[in-house]
From TrEMBL:
InterPro entries: Homeodomain-like_sf (IPR009057), HTH-type_TetR-like_transc_reg (IPR050109), HTH_TetR (IPR001647), Tet_transcr_reg_TetR-rel_C_sf (IPR036271), TetR_SbtR-like_C (IPR049445)
Ranges where the HTH tetR-type domain occurs: 18-77
Keywords: DNA-binding, Transcription, Transcription regulation
Record's protein name: TetR/AcrR family transcriptional regulator
Chain residues forming the annotated DNA-binding region: 40-59
Gene3D superfamilies: Tetracycline Repressor, domain 2 (1.10.357.10)
PANTHER family xrefs: HTH-TYPE TRANSCRIPTIONAL REGULATOR BETI, HTH-TYPE TRANSCRIPTIONAL REGULATOR RUTR
Record keyword Disulfide bond present: no
Source organism, top-level taxon: Bacteria
A Pfam entry, by short name: TetR_C_43
Source species of the chain: Streptomyces amakusaensis
Length: 194
């Protein structure tokens, strides 16, 4: 579901249903950040002060909730990719966007690992989010290739998995906040023309 479709669905709700939906999403974001995307849906309902039945009326399964939580962030990344696709410096635009992907993946515990497998598993809760990100990444990568800044043999899938791996490494080393940036810089040295 696109953001505009979701917004239309939210607008069509009664005011109390809309408030419940937003409360559930807010708590889901918090719980997913603390415990990961496999966190208990019952805990999300409890923290929101609503029953599990209300949660399931809005989100029929975990995948629906995960998609709703990440939709806003994915839309922001897609908007950023569109903006960067107009940059006169395509290589720097690609690097900036990859850094934003790493920051997004690091926002929720367990998300980096889930993102690494989402593209390989069409039934993954994150699959609907990863497809448009791959497409946006491909457009930025193609511009960097055309500018001669990136080797022709670098596939977007490898870049996307690389960002997830970097976010995963940073997640495992929370006492080193600069690690993700250093790893990205190190990895990007291998992207240039050899």
């Amino acid at each position: 579901m696109t953001t505009s479709a979701a917004a239309g669905t939210t607008r069509a709700m009664r005011a109390d249903a809309r408030r419940n939906y937003e409360r559930l999403l807010a708590e889901a974001r918090t719980v997913f950040a603390e415990e990961g995307t496999d966190a208990s849906l019952e805990e999300i309902a409890r923290r929101s002060g609503l029953g599990i039945g209300t949660l399931y009326r809005h989100f029929p399964n975990r995948q629906a909730m995960v998609n709703a939580v990440f939709r806003e962030a994915v839309d922001a990344l897609l908007d950023q990719a569109r903006e960067l696709s107009r940059s006169p410096r395509p290589h720097e635009a690609l690097i900036e966007w990859l850094g934003a992907l790493i920051a997004h993946a690091g926002a929720y515990r367990g998300l980096p690992g889930a993102l690494m497998t989402a593209s390989l598993d069409g039934s993954s809760a994150l699959s609907p989010c990863s497809v448009p990100l791959y497409e946006a990444g491909e457009r930025l990568l193609e511009r960097a290739r055309a500018a001669g800044a990136v080797r022709e043999d670098v596939p977007v899938g490898d870049l996307m998995r690389l960002t997830s791996a970097i976010a995963f490494a940073a997640e495992q080393t929370p006492n080193d906040p600069a690690l993700a940036g250093r790893l990205l810089t190190l990895a990007l040295r291998g992207l240039g023309r050899v």
